[in-house]
Amino acid sequence: MTTLTLQGVGAASQRPDVGCPNDCDPPIQSDAVYVLFTTIDATLAAARVGHHFATAMAVPLTLVHLRSVPYPLPVDRPAGVSPLETQAFLDRLDAAGVQAQIRIVLCRDAYRTISTAVPRHSLVVVGGRRRWWPSRIDRWRRVLDSAGHYVVFVDQENSHA
Asked: What CATH number does the domain located at 3-9+29-155 have?
């Protein structure tokens, strides 16, 4: 069963900052496998791969959509719905045999929020297409890496899991 959680940026940024002494490289300490929403097809490819990781680690799969809300609107009242909330997306997720929790994080700037949207040292799966030039997904991967997350990139063109 898929569950949905709507979260504002204030709640996402209140996580304790736990450092690793002596610059060690800590193991993955993930309470869930997180899949970052990029596009519908790329997210579905990443969710299939993330489902395998979550099953192997015996943790839940959580799809996270960092939803930027423009300044004229209140941050807690965005216009429209997230693609993750649509019945068509949920049907495709169910057809793939993937059960996941869905969390929508409302924010003003996704790049500033991305590193705090999931707990430190988490496994984050990101789907997209390989490009010759840096893309938005590459920038997100660098931000997640620098925040101490473990990032797995899934090429949606070659994903047939």
From this structure: 3.40.50.620
Structure-block tokens of residue 159 = 């994903």
User: Any residues with CB less than 8 A from the CB of 3 and at least 6 apart, and which?
Assistant: 101, 102
Amino acid present at 97: G
CA distances from 108 to 8, 24, 28, 62, 138 (A): 10, 33, 29, 21, 20
> How far is 24 from 70, CA to CA, in rounded Å?
39
Q: pLDDT by residue (tens digit) across 1-29?
A: 444 444 444 333 333 334 444 455 556 66
Neighbours of 148 (CB within 10 A): 17
Domain parsing of the chain, residue ranges: 3-9+29-155
DSSP-derived 3-state class of residue 96:
coil
* pLDDT value of position 25: 56
The model carries a pTM of: 0.77
- Answer whether 37's CB lies under 8 Å from 83's CB: yes
Q: What are 33's strand-pairing partners?
A: 61, 123
